[in-house]
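>> received
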Amino acid sequence: MEQARMRAAEARPCVPAARAPVPPAAGAPSPARGVGARRPAPGVPGAGGGNAAPAPGPVPRPVRRHSVRGQVLEALRSALAGGQLEPGRVYSAPALGARFGVSATPVREAMQQLASEGAVDVVPNRGFRVCVRSAAELAELAEVRALIEVPVVLRLARTVPAGRWEELRPLAEATAAAAAAGDRPAYAEADLAFHRALLSLAGNRRLLALAEELHRSSRWPPPAPGAPAVDRAVLAADAAEHTALLEALIAQDLDVVRSLVLGHISGSDA
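>> returned
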């Protein structure tokens, strides 16, 4: 009999003894709907709870200083190309900021960019002096540009199909329109856009950055204080070279391409 009771006890499953609930620490929130329930995170959809805050909408984009600096930079470039900022004259950042209706900080940042491009020089405690380009300096810039651009354009003339050159025709037409209007700042940017698109076909970003820096340096400021303004005929002749170059590239006439690129670069002080 005793042995039967022992065998029955061994056959019963082992049930752990119930533990007394542990009281929460002082100041701790009580669990909701049973032990271990978690409170839904506020503002998370599907977390439960009818009073959950809605998910936040798109955060408004703040006004960035870079955007202001970019606008000031373009305005300064236009003023340089148009001759509103005189070569050899020193301009302070606060004075230019007052002209553009901004603080001096984005003007200083934009001027530092122009200084890196060789358009202005930093004058400590005074501001920025607009550079004066001598004929010798312009000739040096043209020589460097020719060393870089001529072999690249000739290589492209051999490999780029005619259809790709046709895509550049609207850019050439934009330079002609700016020239016809006598708008030197607009012409400077349209001309740069044409050359950037042409050289971008080489697929070399470093080359493109260097060529653009040289292009900007040779485009402004005017060669010397008091130099006569470039008339529409000069701009129109310069713009016509873009169209002639496209025609030579389409025809793969390498001799004409070389002659046009060299002549166009040597006249880049227009």
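>> The first helix runs from residue 2 to 11.
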